[in-house]
Amino acid sequence: xxxxxxxxxxxxxxxxxxxxxxxxxxxxxxxxxxxxxxxxxxxxxxxxxxxxxxxxxxxxxxxxxxxxxxxxxxxxxxxxxxxxxxxxxxxxxxxxxxxxxxxxxxxxxxxxxxxxxxxxxxxxxxxxxxxxxxxxxxxxxxxxxxxxxxxxxxxxxxxxxxxxxxxxxxxxxxxxxxxxxxxxxxxxxxxxxxxxxxxxxxxxxxxxxxxxxxxxxxxxxxxxxxxxxxxxxxxxxxxxxxxxxxxxxxxxxxxxxxxxxxxxxxxxxxxxxxxxxxxxxxxxxxxxxxxxxxxxxxxxxxxxxxxxxxxxxxxxxxxxxxxxxxxxxxxxxxxxxxxxxxxxxxxxxxxxxxxxxxxxxxxxxxxxxxxxxx
Length: 374
Fold this sequence. Notes:
By secondary structure, the protein is of the alpha/beta class. It has helices spanning 5-8, 15-18, 145-149, 197-212, 227-239, 301-314, 337-346; strands at 104-111, 114-121, 132-138, 164-168, 174-177, 181-184, 215-225, 245-249, 280-285, 291-294, 297-300, 319-323, 368-371. Helices cover 18% and strands 20% of the residues.
């Protein structure tokens, strides 16, 4: 799938984001342009019906003395009394939501009471083979899973590593900014804890894929663009012991010292980075113009990449750094989804010394360079 860079470089209108830091003036209805695959080009979803999926309703449960509040006495919290925690009453521990997963768009996939949507692209022979590598693929702010899936779906039958592609849809997640109120920002990646919707989705999808078709634990990977790249980096921060390798188009770790401006710390907080797994990471960014205006400041993705790579190098991670020089866009010329799959195939879990130390693959763009651990 060829993506035309000039169309991909269109930035989201920033009026909605400006309101995060200062009152907006004039028309605050965002608009956007259609793209042809895998990038952040549409306006933010400002549907007034969108709600904060982290909200809970108090006073709706009674405690039977088992400590979980569901009244069934088994202590597992699912209310069916069988003690296995999956809520289906059969005691086998299998999640009933897993049985409905299929090729294409999946809706109503329940994760802790939240209905999620995701696109699954399955390799040929999925029912007969396995266990299978898995690649998560996260879209940018205002984009859609349908658009982003075009970056990775054509490659699930890769000869070296056929895999299951998972492209989640966002929940119109809202962040609560002091004084200014709530704003839809797609992914739950701002005030990050174990209760993050995206962490829980990652865990639940992996469990279901393993139940249905088997997951190759040596090949669990994540990729994304812009806020989706930040989502991938958040998962690396929270589930880095499980991820074999990761790749980001214009992402950023908000756990890296200096990546979050002081005036943004009120609504961006991640746990410190403590991952011991020395996974390799492929960073792609667009150089000095790879920025996103955010009120009186901006997100500078090329600076994120340099700071994150420096930190990871010091912690024993090998890095491939690619500066395509085309601003806030993806993918860079010659570095589409097929190259990311090649990188994933070459970097399974436990790779402490990248095979790219002696030279990058010949089909990688010449603006990419290996940056070895310190």
